[in-house]
Amino acid sequence: MVSETLRAKKGIVADSNNLRNDRKVINEEDSYYVSVYSNDDEYGYVTIDIPYGDVYGETYYDTDGYGSVEDIEVEYNSIIELSAVCRDDDLYRFVNWDDGETNPTRTISVIEDGVSYTAYFEEIPRYTVTIGSTTDYDDSEFLSISGDTEVDGDGYSWVEVTEGGTVYLTAGDVAGYNWVGWYNGNELLSVDMSYSFIPTQNMSLTAKYEEIPVYTTTVEASPIEGGYVYVDLYSGNWVDGDTEYDYDEEFPSKEWASAEENSTVQIYAKEFSGYRFLGWFIGDEMVYGPEYSGNWINGITPTSDVTYTAKFEEIPVYTVTVIADLAEGGNVSVWTWTGIDPIEG
């Protein structure tokens, strides 16, 4: 707004910084008209100051909130200072005056009548960046997005920034997944979990994770009355598991354990009384011998789903009978040995 002292009444000389000596105002017929405009009142307006020269009448020059003023009446050769002002520097910017001048503040000397000046403003381009992940989890739990010229956004799936602003992305660890990188379509942008860039267009980026393979190790007793089995995690990351008690309520006949890739497991087998352990088998192939009865086998690294069968066999029981000749006055005794081969003859 032009100050009250610059809204000079007709017939009074306005002195500014001793640029002029006191003198009489020229005839009103020699007053000139100047108009100033904003191309878009929403984007910006023009402030006006007249440090040198007379202003006629009680004209108001406050353009803040209006954007443009027509027909400012000043004397010939007055000095007018114009400033193009954005309403919000984060959203709009000054481009130039209509005569090509790019400085938002300018000084003009009024030597023509009816001249006008238009300040051109434009909305600063905005770019929206959206992100998502390849996991089955809620992205808000481990993704974040922000911008240093942020206009809007939700903090985890999208942000809107003005041109020249930096977008910041952060991805966190996700259980059951390995981090791969930030992708724009098939283009790898960064393998770092924290990544920043300046967008030049709307973008949709992907936080790419790969699901960690999970392998299941199953152990089973055969036959179930022959013994019991265990499987347990030895190192790495456990995922799931279960136990079946088909023969004995205390000792399992079958167990399985699922663990992430590169984990190791351990297995155990023990026979029941009356049976002996033959070994661990995968299909028909023995992979661990009978010496592992009652011993944990640890450090097994699964590379696929696998089933280990602990095979048992019943120990044969033979009865050896000794008969004495009663005619000689002897006694009859019967002995029974378990696990002894019969004596021939």
Structure description:
With 345 residues, this protein is mainly β. The chain is 0% helix and 52% strand. It is rod-shaped and about 155 Å long. The N terminus and C terminus are likely disordered. It is built from no helices and 27 strands.
Q: What's the total count of β strands?
A: 27
Sheet having the most strands: 6 strands, mixed
Helix coverage percent of residues? under 10%
What letter string, H or E per element, gives the SSE order?
Answer: EEEEEEEEEEEEEEEEEEEEEEEEEEE
**What is the spatial order of strands in the main beta sheet?**
10-11-8-16-13-14
> Approximately what portion of the residues adopt beta-strand conformation?
over 45%
Mean of residue pLDDT values: 84
N→C terminal distance:
131 Å
Shape: rod-shaped
Oligomer: single chain
Question: Radius of gyration in whole Å, from Cα?
Answer: 47 Å
Total helix count? 0
Secondary structure category: mainly beta
Query: Could you list the spans in which at least 5 consecutive residues all have pLDDT below 50?
Result: 1-28, 58-62, 336-345
What is the topological layout?
Layout: E1 31-38, E2 44-52, E3 69-75, E4 79-86, E5 92-97, E6 105-109, E7 115-123, E8 126-133, E9 143-147, E10 150-153, E11 158-162, E12 167-171, E13 177-184, E14 187-190, E15 194-197, E16 203-211, E17 214-222, E18 227-235, E19 238-244, E20 254-260, E21 264-271, E22 275-282, E23 285-288, E24 297-300, E25 306-314, E26 317-322, E27 333-338
Parallel strand pairs: 1-7, 8-16, 17-25
Antiparallel strand pairs: 1-3, 2-4, 4-6, 5-7, 8-11, 9-12, 10-11, 12-15, 13-14, 13-16, 17-20, 18-21, 19-20, 21-24, 22-23, 22-25, 26-27
